[in-house]
Amino acid sequence: MRRSAPTLALCLAVAGIAGTTGLTACTAPDTEPPPAPAGLTAQAGSATSVHVMWDAAADRDGVTGYQVFEADRLVRELPAEKTMVDITGLAPQTGYAFTVRAKDAAGNLSGPGPAARVTTPAARAEDRTAPTSPATTTARATGPRSARVSWTAATDDTGVTAYDVYQGGVRIHTAGPGESATALNNLRPDTVYTFTVRARDGADNSSPDGPAVDVTTPPAAGDGPGTAPAAFAATASPGTVTLTWTAPDTGDLTTEYELYVNGLPTTVIQFGAGAVPSGRAEHRLTVTEPAGTVWAVKLRSRLPDGNWGSFSAERRITLIA
Predict the structure, then answer these.
(1) pTM for this structure?
(2) Which one, 74, 147, 314, 315, has least CB within 10 Å?
């Protein structure tokens, strides 16, 4: 186990007892670097950009950030929670070698590890046409913290250069143009994820989302039953949105749910005594936003211990006047 001590030696003076000389106990500074990040990949997203990704460090390594290098040049510095970055402003048809170093609280830097090499494609002048969306998307959990997402190939007038995997509207992974599946790691156990895939071309034009697919990761060893509301659905009708779901099995009736709209907590749905649904739950929202407004909605339940459980799948709807 690595130390996460500060950079200065810490000394504690111990008073002499019965006339003995005082003692001083010192803790040596942390000079041990963390291990180099594993799983480094680099994928050209366009003629002038590369997406660099790596595996998150283990908690025991005490990593507080990462430094991304192109050759020997520092190009980005990121906090520990970030394990991917887009490097832009590159030259078309040029080879690059990227390395990543981990940094701990004492300022120790890891070695660079093996470089990820990539060549950007040729630029396409005045390319304003986006690729088609992948027609189908499938996914399955491969463990409590991992999943595999697959898609069908898209088409583009100048050629697809990358596939971007999104979760909840946020890009979390980039795969190469010849790939039709990818493994996703660092997920949370007992959680519903909603994945979509977009195709991208050499001019950075992105397709619309392909079909959304839900994946529920299983609980990790020692975890209890799932806490996410199941089979969540959202339906828009004139002036209203109807939400339906199945309550999680928490050992007690679930009376309170927190609703998120477009990534932000919006309201808490409460069922009073005698009105708590025993099977499918339903709630109607009155909406005043204009027709055509897009909502991404998800919810989570209040558990018997007072904490919030895992989120349901996320649903995207378009409001109707």
Answers:
(1) 0.67
(2) 74
